[in-house]
Amino acid sequence: MGCYLPWGCLFLVLSIVYSRFPSSSGCIMEERAALMDISSWIVSIKSEVPSSWENGDDCCSWKRIMCDNSTRRILRLDLSQIYQPNASYGSDGSTSAEADVPCFNLNMTIFSSFRELQLLDFSGNYACLQNFNGLQGLRKLKYLNLSDNTFIESIPVSIRKLVSLEVINLRGNNMSGALQNTAPGSLFGGGFDGMDFSYSNHYDLQGFTFTTKWNSYTYGRNFFMSMSGIDLSANMLSGEIPMEIGNLSHIKSLNLSNNFFTGSIPATFANLSEIESLDLSENRLNGSIPRQLTRLSSLEVFSVAYNNLSGCLPDSGQFGAFGMDSYRGNSNLRSCTSSSGPVAWNGTVGNVADDTDPILYVVSAVSFVLAFWATVTFVFCHSFGQRVILNL
Q: How far is CA 107 from CA 71, 128, 133, in A?
């Protein structure tokens, strides 16, 4: 079927183009439709939709959203803690959040329309995230925060398809199973040098705050080029730590704490030449601490506390500055230098002064009591003692 009126054809084409790319006063219709789907999901979980989402058709003016000024495409979408648990009231009038928060199903394809999206924060919503493959079309996504939700499955391999990804947080998602550790196409096989899983959650759509070495660094819109790290803490990951993580030579922070990792600490971690913070605490790691790690000249925060490690403690390089808390809870770790004492009973390290020994305290107390009563007995029961007292 042809178009006999040239002006009619032109009008039809312009109408289609306008529907896809509206003027600078609006936003992309398909993205607005996706936001309405998200709004419906928010209502379904009995939470509140941001009030600005109900005002007008220009979603670029809504809260929690930032668009490109020229294309009007959504670049940043902040849905963090959009779900607020219902408060319960105690007899004294105090309020508290529900103890058992339900897990609301969310299919990740709901975000697939935001093809220019660079930042997506969906943290702290207690959602059961399904179909992570729904994000793989977001090829410009750089920042992804899905912390404090629940993955229906383990870390999805399809995360590799987020080719621009530089910042990601998967902390506290009840993920289980082993990390991918096959070199070809693996999660840590060399294609993710710039990925960042570790950061503070305090940021707005104009900037970002990264915390490392207990210091905070604030970045503007181009912060993605400046930082990297990995945070998979507080999950249920198990198995051995993949040695391929050592390929991520540019990360600054690695946090695998509070999981169920077993096996030894990979010696390949010595290749993390820019690492500043390394936390492997509260796992089930065994073996010794690789001495190769003493080459990590930038390392300033280190913890392997509460594992099953054994052997000698590294004492050169940055490791000479780490305190007892870094090794707490490893009863078989010991210092092998002549100037340092062994690991103490609670797994701490360093010289143990005699006056801090609880056995010494017991012996001293018993000696004092015996001496006191021996003196009393001598004074009041022995004839010589009695004469001394009378002479006084």
A: 27, 9, 10
